[in-house]
Amino acid sequence: MRIDVVAFSTNGCATALRLRDVLAGDDVRLYCKTSSNGLGIERIEGSLREWTQRAFAERDAIVFIGATGIAVRHIAPFVRSKDTDPAVVCMDEHGKWAISLLSGHIGGCNLLTQRIADGMGAEPIITTATDLNGKFSVDTFAVRNGMRISSLKIAKDVSARVLDGRFVGFHSDMPVEGDFPDGITAADSGEFGVCVSADPVKKPFDVTLNLIPMDIVLGVGCRRDTDPAKLRTFVHSHLEALGIPRERVAAVASIDIKKDEEAILQLARDLRVPSRFYSSGELNSLEGEFTSSQFVRSVTDVDCVCERSAAMAAGGNDFLLRKTAEDGMTVAVCLRQISPRFV
User: Fold this and answer.
1) Among candidates 212, 244, 47, which has minimal Cα distance to 142?
2) What pLDDT, on the 0 to 100 scale, is given for residue 132?
3) How far apart are CA 164 and CA 187, in angstroms?
4) What's the rounded mean pLDDT across residues 89-110?
5) Cα(167)–Cα(103) distance, rounded to whole angstroms?
6) How many angstroms separate the CA atoms of 139 and 312, rounded?
């Protein structure tokens, strides 16, 4: 998870340093906005509003260590939708409280808040109704298991039905581990239900919430300043040829020298997925058989960018499409394993 943390006092900076240790393993960046001792943490020289805007666009989560009012005022101009906004957590400067402020379910804020509270010895403040009542949250289930939600409105109706004790059926084309939670009934038809399927338009229920496994990773490469529309058409044509709905795509991956390549960044934005960039050392560390090119190695120090980056992001070498090139663009498609389970 890509997390930015900002503190507003010396005590807050001390808490931020503790928090970084708790979140070890994540991509955590610390900042401070204070005229007091920042304890070596990088200071925000521009406006906090500009910093927040960048963090909203680039990061998965933001942690404000200070007054809740500061967080609310600065995130307010950038809040758009629960399926796109990052998680926002607010902590007091002594780390006594951790408040899930924004994107509790889809953005993973509730889970992050609980993790922070457990690691810091803080009290978690989580106010979403399903969590308060110990009920099944389809949003959390989908995010935890790497699935895309087809309709936020229907997802909201799932929660309302669970809370009211009304029927919610559940059908899955793939095995789901664990016991069914209260309020969810295994069914293949009915008036209302949830369907886990790679087919985003499958409708076993009169009203169906589709959860689409995001089990596809795209590895891409392209010449500098490639037209974004050209790369998008190239990639989408290969997905269509494979019969893969775009909803199944989980990430777009490439080498880090392409991290500012607008065509790749735009492709990820269009697909509403993160872009992942890896160093040549990380890509070369992968074991397995890859389509090798001496020319690509001479430019990037990696024999095959698209296949290796796809495998790195997918956590395996299960290719549905090996390196395919056209007019300076390359794409590889890799399957990542998803094993959904109820907790």
Assistant:
1) 212
2) 80
3) 19
4) 94
5) 26
6) 27
Mean pLDDT over residues 62-68, rounded? 97
| Listed residue (125, 128, 335, 340) closest to 250, CA to CA | 335
Q: Where are the beta strands (DSSP E) in 235-296?
A: 249-255, 275-278
Could you tell me if 80 and 21 are in contact, meaning their C-beta atoms sit under 8 angstroms apart? no
Identify the three-state secondary structure at position 135: coil
> How far apart, in whole angstroms, are the C-alpha atoms of residue 309 and residue 87?
26
Q: How many residues does the chain have?
A: 343
Q: Which amino acid, 148?
A: R
For strands 27-32 and 169-172, give the pairing: unpaired
Contact 185, 168 (CB under 8 A): yes
Instruction: Note the pTM of the prediction, 2 decimals.
Output: 0.79
Checking if the pLDDT of 299 tops 80, the result is no
Question: What is the structure's pLDDT at 130?
Answer: 83
Res. 301: pLDDT tops 90: no
CB 20, CB 43: distance < 8 Å? no
Which residues, listed in sequence order, are joined to residue 6 by a DSSP beta bridge?
31, 64
Question: Look-up: residue for tokens 């993160």?
Answer: 274
Q: State the pairing for strand pair 42-43/27-32.
A: parallel
pLDDT beyond 80 at 72: yes
